[in-house]
Design brief:
alpha/beta; five-stranded parallel beta sheet
């Protein structure tokens, strides 16, 4: 029998499927997702939980005319399948292949590029008001998870649209999780709502009963006119209704027919409507259902066992950080650790087990995390904020205004700095040197290996200043073929000293610089290699020394050119009237697409072989 999935090759083909076959189609989609992602890697648990929800939206909407915006976007795989991209899934997240997130340049059915949390309602509000201003009629829907509602931007958007009265649908996909288990007041609030799944029916029954008596009719009228409506009478604190948004739910997020009716009704209303659906993350694949956090983002795995296929690639920098921060906290009772909904991803899950009273998961709220840390620091504690480079961008003003202006001793453990690979443009950590190193009072450090990461973290805690410690994704290395120098504030480390070409490497570029030196020395070049250690303050004495003794100076960083380390070196030499031959090797000033990290480093010239090739060509004037 021909599969139902094979009948879906273009947008809106799902409407040809008979209602009695919806459950079968959902099963086929799940089987396809598990089979496909087991080969390519990707976001599994979140997509398995959103199959019926996405099907219902496609049954209630028309693409590409209507606009569907997914918050974060890692749960959009079913949307991609239903809009004709199933045959491209073999290339998912690979270089020049299908993106793991919605991408406008990939399909007209992807209304908005997403990758970070809590943005969908704002974007959908923009679409809805643009539609109204233009006199158009298309539908607008935003899908946001309960975890994303811990982000303040979502409430800014709700506050705006509640007053605008613009017609749009918000689907609250409540699976009780973001990447890790949700925490905080909103999670508790939604938990209370879930326990009242019959409140709508109860409200209707109560109203009909009360209207049978004169006194009851007056009571109904009074309740409707007062702030305490019948909904508030049944479920205290109906937050969304208070903001001017009609609330429907909670309803079963795996009942397609029920959701289709709810969505169509919501689209017919001339006001914003929020439909609260309850789904199960990892549904349909037992391993993902039991452990949705581990199956949030996965490498290729064995479908039968759920085990990864790539095997142990050694201890990661995240694991090294985890060990180091726990060791420091054991000795220093004033150390506190903060994460924005990513205890496992940042390595703070072990800290949380050992020191729960000093561990704080603030939800998907990076801005709050940073200012909360500033408050802890002002109160006499030593906070360490562990966060991915790409997500720290969201708290830029808080870093400047709340931490650095007051010179508060907050340490930022900036994980995933540099190229991270398959998640693409929204997740590459390629801007942090630029956006951190020009802030007055901010010290920016980058370890060359695992041992140095531990030493730098301890150093940063002792420093009692704002510090950003950036380190890459992936297996940690050890530099063992040269004697190491002690860590001194603002001072670089010369690993090899010769007198022709100087390679000044930042963090993750130290290892390829050492390998490039071996290649260049094979061509009789005399090469100095410097582990810069500090981006700010920069070792100006070292810069003066290499300017005197080398014919060519090469800077190496896994960051964009603009505002990066190389530009700072160039500005220093120009400002001091030093005429040097300087070559900056960095990432170009554009967003880096998705693909395997090593493939991308090869493309953008950050491998040892590419560095040596570039240096030779520049040195010869080619």
């Amino acid at each position: 029998m021909r599969g139902l999935l094979e009948q879906i090759n273009q947008p809106n083909d799902i409407k040809k499927i008979k209602e009695k076959d919806y459950a079968r189609l959902a099963k086929e989609i799940r089987e396809f997702l598990v089979r496909s992602i087991s080969k390519t890697g990707g976001h599994l648990a979140s997509n398995l939980g959103a199959v019926e929800l996405t099907m219902a939206l496609h049954l209630a909407m028309d693409f590409p005319e209507d606009k569907l915006i997914f918050d974060v976007g890692h749960q959009a795989y079913t949307h991609k399948i239903l809009t004709g991209r199933r045959k491209e899934f073999a290339t998912l997240r690979a270089y020049e292949g299908l993106s793991g997130f919605p991408k406008r340049k990939e399909s007209d059915c992807d209304a908005f590029d997403t990758g970070h949390s809590s943005t969908s309602i704002s974007a959908a509000a923009g679409f809805a008001i643009a539609r109204d201003l233009a006199g158009e009629k298309y539908r607008v829907a935003a899908v946001i998870g309960d975890g994303a509602l811990s982000g303040g931007m979502a409430y800014e958007a709700l506050n705006h649209i509640g007053g605008s009265r613009s017609r749009m649908l918000i689907v609250l996909n409540d699976n009780r999780m973001s990447i890790s288990e949700n925490i905080g007041g909103m999670a508790a609030y939604l938990g209370k709502v879930r326990t009242n799944v019959k409140y709508v029916e109860f409200k209707d029954d109560l109203e009909q009963t009360l209207r049978k008596t004169k006194l009851g009719t007056k009571l109904v009228y009074g309740l409707k006119r007062s702030k305490d409506s019948i909904k508030h009478f049944i479920v205290p604190g109906m937050l969304f209704e208070d903001m001017g948004i009609t609330y429907v739910g909670p309803i079963d997020g795996h009942n397609i027919e029920l959701m289709v009716r709810a969505f169509k009704t919501a689209f017919s209303a001339n006001k914003p409507v929020l439909v609260h659906v309850v789904t199960e993350k990892g549904r349909g694949y037992e391993f993902a259902k039991k452990d949705p956090s581990s199956f949030h983002g996965v490498e290729p795995f064995d479908v039968k066992t759920g085990k990864g296929l790539k095997g142990d690639r050694g201890k990661s920098y995240t694991a090294v950080f985890s060990e180091a921060v726990c060791a420091l906290a054991k000795e220093n009772k004033r150390i506190a650790a903060i994460t924005a909904a990513m205890p496992q991803g940042t390595g703070l899950d072990e800290f949380a087990k050992r020191y729960p009273e000093r561990f704080f998961d603030v939800g998907i709220a990076e801005e709050h995390a940073v200012t909360f840390a500033a408050g802890l620091a002002a109160g006499g504690f030593q906070p360490i904020v562990a966060v991915y480079s790409t997500f720290l961008q969201r708290a830029y003003d808080q870093i400047v205004h709340d931490v650095c202006v007051g010179e508060l001793p907050v340490v930022f453990a900036v994980d995933r700095a540099g190229i991270v690979g398959n998640d693409g443009e929204t997740h590459q950590g390629i801007l942090d040197i630029s956006y951190l190193s020009h802030i007055p009072g901010m010290t920016v450090m980058a370890p060359g290996d695992a041992t140095e990461l531990k030493e730098m973290l301890a150093f940063a805690v002792r420093l009692k200043k704002p510090v950003a410690l950036r380190y890459p994704r992936g297996a940690a290395i050890e530099i063992s073929d040269t004697a190491r120098k002690p860590l001194i504030y603002g001072k670089a480390e010369v690993l090899f000293s010769e007198n022709e070409i100087a390679l000044l490497a930042v963090g993750s570029m130290v290892e390829p610089a050492l390998k490039a030196r071996d290649i260049l020395r094979g061509g009789a070049y005399r090469v100095t290699v410097v582990n810069m250690r500090f981006v700010t303050p920069m070792d100006e004495e070292l810069l003066d020394d290499v300017a005197e003794g080398h014919r060519l100076i090469v800077t190496l960083e896994e960051n964009i050119h603009a505002g990066g380390f190389g530009e700072k070196v160039a500005a220093y030499y120009a400002g001091h009237g030093k005429k040097v031959q300087l070559k900056n090797i960095a990432l170009p000033n554009h967003y880096i697409e998705h693909g395997d990290a090593e493939v991308l480093r090869e493309k953008y010239g950050l491998t040892a072989e590419k560095i040596a090739e570039e240096v030779r060509a520049f040195y010869r004037g080619e």
